[in-house]
Amino acid sequence: MVFTDSHAHLSLVAEEAGRAALDSVIHSYQEAWSTGSGPGPFIVDPGVEADDLEARRSLIGTHPFLYYAAGIWPSVEALAEPGRHLALLEDTLEKARASGAPVSALGEGGLDYYHRNGTREAQRELFIGQLELARRYELPMIVHSRDAAADTIGIIREFGSRPPIIIHCYGYGVEEIDSFLELGCHISFAGNLTYKKAAALREACVRVPDERLLLETDSPYLNPEPRRGRAATPLDIERSYALAADLRNTTSEALASLVSVNLRALIGVASRGKATGNSSDASPDSEPTGR
């Protein structure tokens, strides 16, 4: 059985686990779609560089189960010139829309004070700029936040309910989860939910209302136990579903339906949007959250 994965870097899966691993993912999800009675489980592939969308599409292809996002992770290069990279991202969005294959979300982008790739001022500029683009293009925003809970919460609060927010690879505790939920955020948990020292994450997972819950692999990172340390693919997410279902007193199958409905509502609305033209903080057990 395959499951909806709200955040998987499939081009990096090909790099880290090999092309055969990516092909296995594509085959498995295609098969689930061809044999099911309705829309099957799906995957969101996020961007990390302003202009990486076409390269990802060329490598991975177009599939009914795959949705693409475009965004700028706070890298050294992007933080050196936030304005230029934001302009590149807007150009990517315009080209995608003109081609008839618009992106379905903005991201991943946000704040990362763990890696310290640039000043906090540059990180805020890059993050706020992407939130503004997400609002203009009526897209949900996939947010990366590491060692930056207070600033992330503060910036999201400034934007109110638009754009819709997905906190990807949630890596904070119970106090922070309540703040993010008060702001209307969707919360996505990755494979580190299964790690031995992730008690705070598991407690946070229980607190998320059904309609706000998402699950992801963040492939090729954060492989759920017992394969921690190996390159992950979306085919590994079943173990996260099993644990989350146990925490929430439900079944993996029921949780799969719930997560798919939640993500489809976010992405479905986004894909129909049109631009208006108006302008512990580290992951538990010290596991890197992506880069």
**CATH class (first level) name:** Alpha Beta
H/I helix tally: 11
Shape: globular
What low-confidence regions span 5 or more consecutive residues with pLDDT below 50? Answer: 269-291
Span between termini: 29 Å
Question: What topology emerges from the helices and strands here?
Answer:
Layout: H1 10-17, H2 19-35, E1 43-45, H3 53-60, E2 66-70, H4 76-80, H5 82-98, E3 105-112, H6 120-136, E4 141-146, H7 149-159, E5 165-167, H8 174-182, E6 186-189, H9 199-207, E7 213-215, H10 238-247, H11 252-271
Helix pairs in contact: 1-2, 5-6, 10-11
Describe the structure.
By secondary structure, the chain is an alpha/beta fold. It has a single domain (10-35, 46-286), classed as Alpha-Beta Barrel (TIM Barrel). Helix content is 45%, strand content 11%. The protein has 11 helices and 7 strands. It has helices at 10-17, 19-35, 53-60, 76-80, 82-98, 120-136, 149-159, 174-182, 199-207, 238-247, 252-271; strands at 43-45, 66-70, 105-112, 141-146, 165-167, 186-189, 213-215. Strands 1-2-3-4-5-6-7 form a 7-stranded parallel β-sheet, sandwiched between helices. Helix 8 links the parallel strand 5 and strand 6 (186-189). Helix 5 (82-98) packs parallel to helix 6 and helix 10 packs across helix 11. The longest helix is centred in the last third of the chain and has 20 residues, at 252-271. It is globular and about 45 Å long. Residues 269-291 have low confidence and may be disordered.
